[in-house]
Design brief:
- Residues 41-423 form the Aminotransferase class I/classII large domain.
- Its cofactor is pyridoxal 5'-phosphate.
- It catalyses: S-adenosyl-L-methionine = 1-aminocyclopropane-1-carboxylate + S-methyl-5'-thioadenosine + H(+).
- The chain is of the alpha/beta class.
- The protein folds into two domains: 6-50 and 328-427, Alpha-Beta Complex (Aspartate Aminotransferase, domain 1); 52-322, Aspartate Aminotransferase, domain 2 (3-Layer(aba) Sandwich).
- It is 46% helix and 13% strand.
- It has helices spanning 6-9, 18-28, 52-61, 63-66, 76-81, 89-102, 119-131, 148-154, 175-187, 210-223, 246-252, 289-298, 306-316, 319-346, 373-386, 414-461, and strands at residues 41-42, 69-70, 73-74, 114-117, 137-141, 159-163, 192-198, 226-230, 264-269, 282-286, 350-351, 359-363, 389-390, 392-393, 404-408.
- α7 packs parallel to α8 and α7 packs across α12 (289-298).
- It is globular.
- The structure holds pyridoxal-5'-phosphate.
Amino acid sequence: MGLLSGKATCNTHGQDSSYFLGWQEYEKNPYDEVQNPTGIIQMGLAENQLSFDLLESWLDRNPDAAGFKRDGQSIFRELALFQDYHGLPAFKKALVEFMSEIRGNKVTFDTSKIVLTAGATSANETLMFCLAEPGEAFLLPTPYYPGFDRDLKWRTGVEIVPIQCTSLNGFQITEMALEEAYQLAQKRHLKVKGVLVTNPSNPLGTTMSRNELNLLVNFITEKNIHLISDEIYSGTVFSSPGFVSIMEILKDRNCENTEVWNRVHIVYSLSKDLGLPGFRVGAIYSNDDTVVAAATKMSSFGLVSSQTQYLLSALLSDKKFAQNYISENKKRLKQRHRKLVSGLEKAGISCLKSNAGLFCWVDMRHLLSSNTFEAEMELWKKIVYDVKLNISPGSSCHCTEPGWFRVCFANMSEDTLKLSMQRLKAFVDSITTTLHNQSNHQSIKNSRRRSFTKWVFRLSFDDPMTGER
Ligand SMILES: Cc1ncc(COP(=O)(O)O)c(C=O)c1O
């Protein structure tokens, strides 16, 4: 132990968060329709498995792309030797055009401003290395993606200060919450270097309103700090209001050539929109040349392999395919989301109204034995171990209100989703019956206790004037 670094032995990775613990429990006993029908159903993993058939049929139609061939000729050697950290120009072009397509072509992106990274995980960490010193802080609205504790803090030494959002306004960011977070950082003697938001939000599944985005731009302008917009879920917006990228807001406000233009950075990845987390394809988009140059050099530590870039440049530059994929994928997500919401409703559970993402933000406050995080953990354990559903408790997302859970819907078959809802309904029915019986029992006990106490009080504390307490 003594010979290892502090980083290797410290506990700040977040591995012991209930978010990751749930995954470990699932690994021990994974549900399988045939092999293990009583196993745990994984609903804590934001994977998009709804549109694989579209990708697979494109691969069938375009065998050269995955076969390392161009016009029928092998380019194996070319790909095997390619290691330029600037990335394949054809892939960068295809990626920025795909990003514009997702934003309804309201904004365009320049290939000279994009840096390829091994997923959004690497993109977010790289931005921390570029924008902050160890011990400086970024403000993040709560609830937030649990992986950020690892991605933003662990190796960089950067601190996260929460912007406390609440259910009172659907967890939207307010001017007051931003200011309070800034003050809290100052109280903790942390220099604030920026705000990081996820739009659409993980775990809320909601898009940010123009009002919130404008608030953010005003805030970072006033405080002279950065803004990172993690737009990894931008292609998953399946209902109105549509997605508004921070780039669109900057354009609308004519921010080009202003200082703030260089302080806004976008993170993107193909892990969610294309459902390819295993391919490790992410990107940083920044208007600041120095950030782009530094991040490009840093990307040596997490490059995207050349065969992945080659394959995906062919796939994404097939415009017709890309457009059809985006709209069909959204349709499927919308339908799946509806199935989850109605399944939850049948179990008497509601969730935050959402229009994006691969999950719902589910309100189980009424099922808590008390309004505490201990009770949230108690309920979560029952849901994982007894009901056999792995969902993510709000506390793992740093939510300030106990009783909220993130439930994923796009990483399983429709039948599995149906089964998960049956299990949940049976559980809720059983505990509401128990709670009902308990409360009946308790009210009998209470009324007995009341008459007993009244009687005792009458003996000892009777008002001498009225005969009443
Ligand atoms: C908001 C957010 N950012 C980043 C990531 C990491 O994504 P990637 O697989 O591209 O590293 C995730 C994954 O769940 C996420 O939800």
